[in-house]
Amino acid sequence: MAITKAFFSLNPASCHPSLHPRSPTVHLHLASSGAPSCHLSVRVTSDSKSMVLTAEKPSESGLEVLHNATSDSKPTVLIAEKLSESGLELLRNTTSVDCSYGLSPDQLAAKISSCDALIVRSGTKVSREVFEAAKGRLRVVGRAGVGIDNVDLHAATEFGCLVVNAPTANTIAAAEHGIALLTAMARNVAQADASVKAGKWERSKYVGVSLVGKTLAVMGFGKVGSEVARRAKGLGMHVIAHDPYAPAERAHALSVELVSFDDAIATADFISLHMPLTATTEKMFNDETFARMKKGVRIINVARGGVIDEDALVRALDNGQVAQAALDVFVKEPPPKDSKLVQHERVTVTPHLGASTVEAQEGVAIEIAEAVVGALNGELAATAVNAPMVPAEVLSELAPYVILAEKLGRLAVQLVAGGSGIKGVKVVYTSSQDPDDLDTRLLRAMVTKGIVEPISDSFVNLVNADFIAKQRGLHFAEERIKQELNGSNGSPVSSIQVQIPHVGSLFASAVSDAGFIQVEGKVRDGIPHLTRIGSFAVDVSLEGNLILCRQVDQPGMIGKVGSILASQNVNVSFMSVGRTYRGKQAIMAIGVDEEPSKETLEKIGNIQAIEEFVFLKL
Ligand SMILES: NC(=O)C1=CN([C@@H]2O[C@H](COP(=O)(O)OP(=O)(O)OC[C@H]3O[C@@H](n4cnc5c(N)ncnc54)[C@H](O)[C@@H]3O)[C@@H](O)[C@H]2O)C=CC1
Ligand SMILES: O=C(O)C(=O)COP(=O)(O)O
């Protein structure tokens, strides 16, 4: 049989099925023809820059890759809000870009089922209805900015849709805008500007307050908050910060004191808000907390309108507890025209301009375009919001084990007798690595995929695997066993074992002595192998389909089964026999390229020495 090698130059991560196995955009360059009748096995080269496909006989996964490679269709990316040209250009290289700004929720819902990715800023609500209307096609939501409070993350995860954001490119812009609002508010710039333009000259009305020596409390000491702190120190302010999760070193490096919430609000002359809007931070500035502030405090909000109870702020402004406020963000954007808060004499407002500099918009557009294109290629984006981040080097190391994990899951579930009701799954990894160093999230997700997809119409990927398992009541347990290096060549995993306890099996021999269905596999030369079923050791490449037979250990069995398959034109790709004791029982694992007919399987079952058999699709 001719061996054909094919190379493709993408990051290996782009070709493995962790994110969207059904449609990786892979361009294959086959070195010779005949590939459709070939079997493709995927191997990552030692430099981790490419994958080698070794072609021998047909396989479903190989043909799937070929199918995608021959399709010219580019993924469609819907851009729902203004994005800089540099980001659009980057997207246009590999995707079909649809810029449709200002869509109503209904228009968005109508369009989304023809889109593979959606890019938004803060003005578009990506609600559960959007994911439902996408009918499974939407694979990535890109948020061209930081805050993802306008995206329903629970729904995204349930639908297996990856959400990525652009968390760094607008930090400075937001911090500069915070400082702009702080200084403008202290000196009544906006009010004085309007007054002069109205033909007035009110110098004594707009006497301001100085910043130097005043205490600024930065609430939320993350990227934006710390840049605001740095700049405020340059203005001669005394800066304190409150952030329950910020590392002390970050504050130390900027000579900023981290204080409790109570201390921050009680001592500050100015309070600048920089925390995300979450269930915990929603309305954390309210009647009660305003009352605990220093009388005449000034508040700046460049974070999210929802962290303030807006009605309470109006009351605090009216009774003088809060002297002034400068707001870039509102609970409802745009706010109602007659909003008392917006119209308040001592409130300075901007229309959510924090990230709106030319530089920041160019930066977020490029950051999000790269993340979306990467995600569409199957890469795990570094800025993923609802999926674990698996570093690229770990990913390429684990690539063959990812395939093994899915196949073992697929195999194990097919061995379960109908009506058993799977409740739990245990995955045991043996590895020469320290158990704590082995990141198994990807492998666990793929075992889930292998178990769930054959028995449901759920689409499982790294984003929704844990959710789907939980939803189906599948309890996952994992065990990592450290194995000494001998024979494992330093590979991250030596073997993966999938166990399904408390179920009946279609193939009694798959049940271990301990009473659970057990299949175990290893990767050899980049190819996943089944190495154990129940208590029987076997060695068969996990490709194509598999027939498992248990028979009395006697001569001639391989020949008998082989000739039945040959007479029906079913090609045997691998065969392995494992037995307990000589002359007792043996397990025969036979890899077949084609699916044998029912009659062929019956003929095998009728061989006298065969005690049980099962046909499994991989
Ligand atoms: N107005 C605008 O155009 C922009 C607004 N933003 C907003 O600013 C927020 C912050 O952005 P980054 O600094 O880039 O995010 P970040 O994630 O770097 O910082 C947020 C910080 O808030 C802290 N935090 C969380 N819960 C808190 C709580 N209950 N009390 C105090 N601190 C808490 C976190 O520990 C974190 O350090 C974003 O979530 C976004 O909503 C960001 C960019 C532009
Ligand atoms: O990045 C953020 O969180 C922002 O609030 C910026 O919003 P925008 O992209 O300008 O609508």
TrEMBL record:
<protein>
    <recommendedName>
        <fullName>D-3-phosphoglycerate dehydrogenase</fullName>
        <ecNumber>1.1.1.95</ecNumber>
    </recommendedName>
</protein>
<dbReference type="Pfam" id="PF19304">
    <property type="entry name" value="PGDH_inter"/>
</dbReference>
<keyword id="KW-0520">NAD</keyword>
<dbReference type="InterPro" id="IPR045865">
    <property type="entry name" value="ACT-like_dom_sf"/>
</dbReference>
<dbReference type="InterPro" id="IPR015878">
    <property type="entry name" value="Ado_hCys_hydrolase_NAD-bd"/>
</dbReference>
<comment type="similarity">
    <text>Belongs to the D-isomer specific 2-hydroxyacid dehydrogenase family.</text>
</comment>
<dbReference type="GO" id="GO:0051287">
    <property type="term" value="F:NAD binding"/>
</dbReference>
<comment type="pathway">
    <text>Amino-acid biosynthesis; L-serine biosynthesis; L-serine from 3-phospho-D-glycerate: step 1/3.</text>
</comment>
<dbReference type="InterPro" id="IPR006140">
    <property type="entry name" value="D-isomer_DH_NAD-bd"/>
</dbReference>
<keyword id="KW-0809">Transit peptide</keyword>
<dbReference type="GO" id="GO:0009570">
    <property type="term" value="C:chloroplast stroma"/>
</dbReference>
<keyword id="KW-0028">Amino-acid biosynthesis</keyword>
<dbReference type="GO" id="GO:0004617">
    <property type="term" value="F:phosphoglycerate dehydrogenase activity"/>
</dbReference>
<dbReference type="InterPro" id="IPR045626">
    <property type="entry name" value="PGDH_ASB_dom"/>
</dbReference>
<dbReference type="InterPro" id="IPR006236">
    <property type="entry name" value="PGDH"/>
</dbReference>
<keyword id="KW-0934">Plastid</keyword>
<dbReference type="InterPro" id="IPR002912">
    <property type="entry name" value="ACT_dom"/>
</dbReference>
<dbReference type="Pfam" id="PF00389">
    <property type="entry name" value="2-Hacid_dh"/>
</dbReference>
<keyword id="KW-0718">Serine biosynthesis</keyword>
<dbReference type="InterPro" id="IPR036291">
    <property type="entry name" value="NAD(P)-bd_dom_sf"/>
</dbReference>
<dbReference type="InterPro" id="IPR029752">
    <property type="entry name" value="D-isomer_DH_CS1"/>
</dbReference>
<keyword id="KW-0150">Chloroplast</keyword>
<keyword id="KW-0560">Oxidoreductase</keyword>
<dbReference type="GO" id="GO:0006564">
    <property type="term" value="P:L-serine biosynthetic process"/>
</dbReference>
<dbReference type="Pfam" id="PF01842">
    <property type="entry name" value="ACT"/>
</dbReference>
<feature type="domain" description="ACT">
    <location>
        <begin position="546"/>
        <end position="618"/>
    </location>
</feature>
<dbReference type="InterPro" id="IPR029753">
    <property type="entry name" value="D-isomer_DH_CS"/>
</dbReference>
<dbReference type="Pfam" id="PF02826">
    <property type="entry name" value="2-Hacid_dh_C"/>
</dbReference>
<dbReference type="InterPro" id="IPR029009">
    <property type="entry name" value="ASB_dom_sf"/>
</dbReference>
<dbReference type="InterPro" id="IPR006139">
    <property type="entry name" value="D-isomer_2_OHA_DH_cat_dom"/>
</dbReference>
